[in-house]
Amino acid sequence: MTGAKRKKKSLPWSKMRIPRCEDFKQWCRRRLPILEWATHYSLKESLLPDTVSGMMLAVQQVAQGTFALTSLISANAVERLVPLSSQNLTTHSNTSVLGLSDFEMQRIGVAAAVSFLGGVIQVAMFVLQLGSATFLITEPVVSAMTTGAATHVVTSQAKYLLGMKMPHISGPLGFFYIYAYIFKNIKSVQLEALLLSLLSIVVLVLVKELNEQFKRKIKIVLPVDLVLMIAASFTCYCTDMENTYGLEVVGHIPKGIPPPRAPPMNILSAVITEAFGVALVGYVASLALAQGSAKKFRYSVDDNQEFLAHGLSNVIASFFFCIPSAAAMGRTAGLYSTGAKTQVACLISCIFVLIVIYTIGPLLYWLPMCVLASIIVVGLKGMLIQFRDLKRYWNVDKIDWGIWVSTYIFTICFAANVGLLFGVVCTTAIVIGRFPRAKTLSTKNMKEMEFKVKTEMDDETLQQVKIISINNPLVFLNAKKFHNDIMNIIQKENIGNQPLDEIRKYEQSTLVSSLSGVCNEEATQPCLNPKCSLVLDCSGLTFSDYTGVSMLVEVYMDCKNKSVDVSLVHCTASLIKAMKYCGNLDSEKPIFFESVSAAISNIHLNKNLSILSDHSEI
């Protein structure tokens, strides 16, 4: 008995899966994507466009620096702990690091500490798998937060654009205090700086618009940022604007990169607020751009992997006194417009930036600060024009419009991280409040509808139609799962070989219900073919937000790309209006119908017309 007991106890261990070398390789490829795509890189097709895009991206990097939103958050910590007013109280002896003074090293150390702790927080979020919670951050919230943060950045550059001496102002309602100070001291505006700022902004906007208009005809766009920097620096040097007109210039720029050294750990507790802001704002802004790229080029994004990537980028860079970084909309759009093929373009850009740091950097001593501020402000154009999204949100879902406005107000009144938190909480609370009033499609109606379809149409047509009922409100909480459920029900790739009981169990777990047995549940082949059609019954769709409507449009476009015709029935007038406004739906043939029978009849009619067309071609 004892031996038998011992044998039973050892059984679970014998069934345990021992990690293999292949599992480790797969984990490495998943966490280091370069190992996956680098082996398939085509030098002939991709190297030239990646090189050109990398060079253009480097020009933008030199002109604008890192991500403006995280830089602004870091600056708040620097000014709070090592303010400029304390410069006279600090000894002016130079350190051994790139000839920088002790005061400058203290300020750089604070920024590096913010970068280090922000990266640690992002890595911790990766370990806790918090990337799966990003569905709580909706598109209106991200749009409002980034627009508000961009407004903060523009405000922070106002003193340079106007040539004013202004104390650092931050904290709650600091945005309004800055403009109050400007209007109170309007007479101290430096006319030369103002005129140079206006001229720079006009030149930048005009040339960038021309580049955008003619980007298809010219292979290489004019790097107006770099040209303006060189022209302004040369002019300032020749005319001695710093002394003649009192224009503030960039000043001394150290050459090279300092040797690695740990950031000051004794101030980590003092910068924890800014570190959380950097971790969340940088991640959310970067993830929004990543998801936009994934949608445009049709690939998937691992939300949790983004935490790891950005976290390690900030932690490692902090040992070289780098400030926090994140993806930027302007540079991402620049890569699109210049025809970048792969991430090699970013690597080439880094190489060129290093060359600038070691050679050209010190030559920018004479660059006027008003010109640099103009470049930064124009670089934020992509975020600032997100005000145009308000019209779209108003037409699709007025509640999301209200969330956008309130999130923007909270962002400019307090900070980007506060606005982000408010937007998430507000969105979740509103959806939770709307759900109890939601109605679902009754079982009786489902049975009547199924019977009606099966008796009125011929079997041949039915075998090519999949009828699906949406039984829940479609909002940001379930939009992604809705998309996955629709795709899985259409293709049946993962469940085609399973027993019927398991298939029924699968469909019960989805957010949509299959109404007809038009795709044979026991078949091993997917229901995906050039003549397959999908009917979405929206009777149970009691309400939807902007994310839900966008996902419906995305489902329609994805099915269309897979040669699956989609028809929507029992849609409310507001849903039809929102979908037409939100996406480019097919205007040549109707997709909205009053009933399932009408949709099936239309499918049958189109099928007969297609057969006649085929015969006529023969």
TrEMBL record:
It catalyses: hydrogencarbonate(in) = hydrogencarbonate(out); D-gluconate(in) = D-gluconate(out); oxalate(in) = oxalate(out); iodide(out) = iodide(in). The keyword Nucleotidyltransferase does not apply. Coiled coil: none annotated. It is a multi-pass membrane protein. InterPro entries: SLC26A/SulP_dom, SLC26A/SulP_fam, STAS_dom, STAS_dom_sf. The chain crosses the membrane at residues 108-128, 134-154, 166-183, 189-207, 267-287, 307-330, 342-360, 366-387, 408-432. Its main location: membrane. GO terms for molecular function: chloride channel activity; chloride:bicarbonate antiporter activity. Belongs to the SLC26A/SulP transporter (TC 2.A.53) family. This is Anion exchange transporter. The lineage of its organism: Eukaryota, Metazoa, Chordata, Craniata, Vertebrata.
